[in-house]
Design goal:
The structure holds two protein chains of two kinds. Chain A is built from three helices and no strands. Chain A is mostly helical. Chain A has a single domain, classed as F1FO ATP Synthase (Up-down Bundle). In chain A, helix 1 runs antiparallel to helix 2 and helix 1 packs antiparallel against helix 3. The radius of gyration of chain A is 18 Å and the shape is rod-shaped. Chain B is α+β, with helices and mostly antiparallel strands. Chain B folds into two domains: 135 residues; 262 residues, no CATH class. Helix content of chain B is 63%, strand content 7%. In chain B, a hairpin with a 2-residue loop joins strand 9 and strand 10. In chain B, helix 9 packs antiparallel against helix 10. Chain B is flat. In chain B, 29% of the residues are buried. The chains are: A mainly alpha, B alpha+beta. At the A-B interface, helix 2 and helix 3 of A face helix 12, helix 16 and helix 17 of B.
Chain lengths: 79, 546
């Protein structure tokens, strides 16, 4: 039983990083291309565009946090 | 320190014959931010430019094209270029030189054209086979051999051009300076209100410069030009001029990138000055990386002298100090565990490293969230002050006070679990009060907003996460090189060092960018939304170049 629990925890950690990473990248792709489009019209928008582009990175940071908690807090209790 | 220059609105009224002299004075003083006149009617119109602006603009354009095509910039000139009084002789000299440069350029491009054509002829090497006359072939060959003469000639022209540019570049810069300010002056009436015989300038001036201006005007024109303060309302867009001490100055750039503050709201530059480098340092936290950023920003400061670059490098320089400090706390030097490698157990009785953030990420996580709570609390308090100033205490309590109490109640509840259980009643009481205030202030939607503020606070987890990813990459690079590549010996040692350098350079780039952007984002998205309105305008006194 314990082995199954370990597998589930580790898999959950992997999924939480992988899926949020994908989600962040996908969101950033759209914002990034829009930002570059806006920049060709008005070059001063570089600063704002750059900041807007990294906004979805929060998703992957949450994912990473969840994974870390799973690995370092939950996993020792299961073992 | 937190307040900016106080601005007052003035009006300057005079007869049209004195307009030119007035413009000259205002231009040299550089203290008035002119408000452009827009509402024209039958009696009042915008003024007409003085002199032939278009002619001078054309000259300015050709001067600027020379400046940019030969890359003449003030910082590239070795001799000190003085802004002394512009003389008629200098103007004639510059215009003459400009013509010379143009004609030399033309000659060179013609020569280039001929040389290219000759090169094309050369490719027709099988010309003898088509049965042409010998004398024709001879002249043909003559043309080809004359190519070297042409090239010599071109070189002579090029040298001449280079010498000319070198000799006259300071004159060109001076003339460009003179012309652009001259055109500025000539076009100034376009921003004035004029009637048939009078003109009126409206503008903003910092309060303590009003009296000197009045004195100057009085001395020069007596009563013929009249200056007075004009009443204005808070709702007008008053330009903002910062007065920050020099260490805080670079951080104005971060407001420039976002939006300028309105004159009536709190200027957050000082708060950014404290928190931005702190966040940056927590995220990057590496002695080696910090040193490299510090040294390179010092070096680049000598190279890039424009205002924006100076500010950016100033921010990086300041943030790198925090990076080094947090590197000492984390015990990281290019990802190596420096204290462990040097076998330093403790310094001044403190165990080193204080926090090993790879193993012990929980304390850093809790620290990050605590910083987030405090930072957002600060934002809300600033918002409270802003709203109190604008709409009174009641609105301030309903709109921001409820959130402040809510966050404080959370803090009290968390603290109560460590110290005494009794505190939990205080926390619970505060929580109930804040919810009531929230419902009064924002209605049911306010309750949903609680999740928003929670995600804001959780967003500060990035202080830990970004740092962890940067250390992670550094450690991976180090272990690949030290444990896998170098032990193989021979050529692999060289390869190992190459991987080490390339990897760390890449990681530094990533680290600089990621830490900067995320620190910036925490300010723009999490901090500013609690109080900042923005949309103000920058104080641009007439007479300064922009």
């Amino acid at each position: 039983m314990a082995e199954l629990a370990v597998i589930v925890v580790v898999l959950s950690a992997a999924i939480s990083v992988a899926v949020t990473g994908f989600a962040a990248a996908w969101a950033e792709k759209h914002i990034g291309s829009a930002a570059v489009g806006a920049m060709t019209e008005k070059e001063e928008l570089f600063g704002k565009g750059l900041v807007l582009t990294v906004i979805p990175e929060t998703i992957v940071i949450f994912g990473l946090t969840v994974a870390l908690v799973l690995l370092f807090v939950v996993l020792p209790q299961v073992l | 320190m937190l307040s900016n220059e106080r601005m007052i609105k003035i009006a300057l009224l005079g007869t049209k014959d004195l307009m030119k002299d007035t413009i000259d004075i205002l231009h040299s003083l550089k203290i008035i931010h002119i408000i452009d006149f827009k509402e024209q009617n039958d009696t009042f119109q915008i003024g007409k430019p003085l002199g032939e602006v278009s002619k001078y603009s054309e000259i300015l354009l050709s001067i600027r094209s020379i400046l940019s095509s030969f890359d003449i910039r003030p910082e590239n000139i070795k001799e000190t270029y003085t802004k002394r009084e512009f003389t008629r002789e200098l103007e004639i000299d510059v215009l003459k030189t400009e013509k010379e440069i143009k004609s030399l350029n033309e000659k060179i491009s013609k020569l280039n054209y001929v040389i290219i054509e000759i090169d094309k002829l050369k490719t027709l090497s099988d010309i003898e086979d088509i049965g042409l006359d010998k004398s024709f072939l001879k002249s043909f060959n003559n043309i080809i051999t004359s190519k070297s003469d042409l090239e010599n000639q071109k070189k002579i022209y090029n040298d001449k051009l280079e010498l000319l540019i070198k000799e006259k570049s300071s004159h060109f810069l001076q003339y460009e300076d003179f012309l652009s300010s001259e055109i500025d002056k000539m076009e100034a009436p376009l921003r004035f209100t004029t009637s048939t015989n009078t003109f009126l300038v409206e503008g903003w001036i910092s309060e303590n410069k009003f009296n000197p201006l009045q004195k100057t005007i009085k001395n020069k024109f007596g009563d013929r030009v009249h200056l007075e303060k004009v009443r204005y309302s808070d709702q007008e867009s008053i330009p903002v001029e910062f007065k920050h001490p020099s260490p805080v100055k670079p951080f104005e750039l971060l407001l420039d990138l976002f939006e300028y503050p309105k004159s009536r709201e709190i200027d957050p530059t000082f708060a950014i000055f404290i928190t931005f480098p702190l966040f940056y340092g927590i995220m990057l936290g590496d002695i080696g990386y910090g040193l490299i950023i510090f040294l390179s920003s010092l070096l680049l400061k000598k190279k890039f002298k424009t205002e924006g670059w100076k500010m950016l490098l100033g921010i990086l320089e300041y943030s790198s100090l925090y990076t080094i400090a947090f590197g000492l706390i984390d015990g990281e030097f290019f990802g190596f565990d420096i204290f462990h490698l040097l076998e330093i157990e403790e310094i001044f009785g403190i165990h080193m490293p204080i926090i090993d953030r790879i193993v012990d990420f929980m304390p850093v996580l809790i620290l990050s969230i605590s910083i987030g709570v405090l930072h957002i609390l600060l934002g809300l308090i600033l918002g409270f002050i802003n709203i109190k100033k604008a709409h009174g205490i009641k609105e301030a309590i309903l709109e921001k006070g409820s959130w402040i109490i809510l966050i404080i109640s959370f803090i009290v509840i968390v603290i109560s679990s460590f110290f005494s259980q009794a505190l939990i009643y205080l926390g619970g009481g505060l929580f109930v009060i804040s919810i009531i205030l929230l419902l009064l202030g924002e209605g049911f939607i306010g309750l949903i907003e609680i999740f928003g503020i929670m995600s804001n606070i959780l967003s500060y987890v990035r202080l830990m996460a970004i740092g962890l990813s940067s250390v992670g990459i550094a450690i991976v690079i180090n272990s690949i090189v030290m444990d896998i590549v170098i032990p193989k010996g021979g050529v692999f040692i060289l390869l190992g060092y190459i991987i080490l350098i390339v990897g760390h350079v890449g990681n530094i780039m990533l680290g600089i960018l990621a830490s900067f952007l995320h620190a910036l984002r925490l300010h723009y998205v999490e901090f500013f939304t609690k109080f900042y309105e923005g949309g103000g305008i920058k104080f641009k006194p007439f007479g300064t170049k922009y």
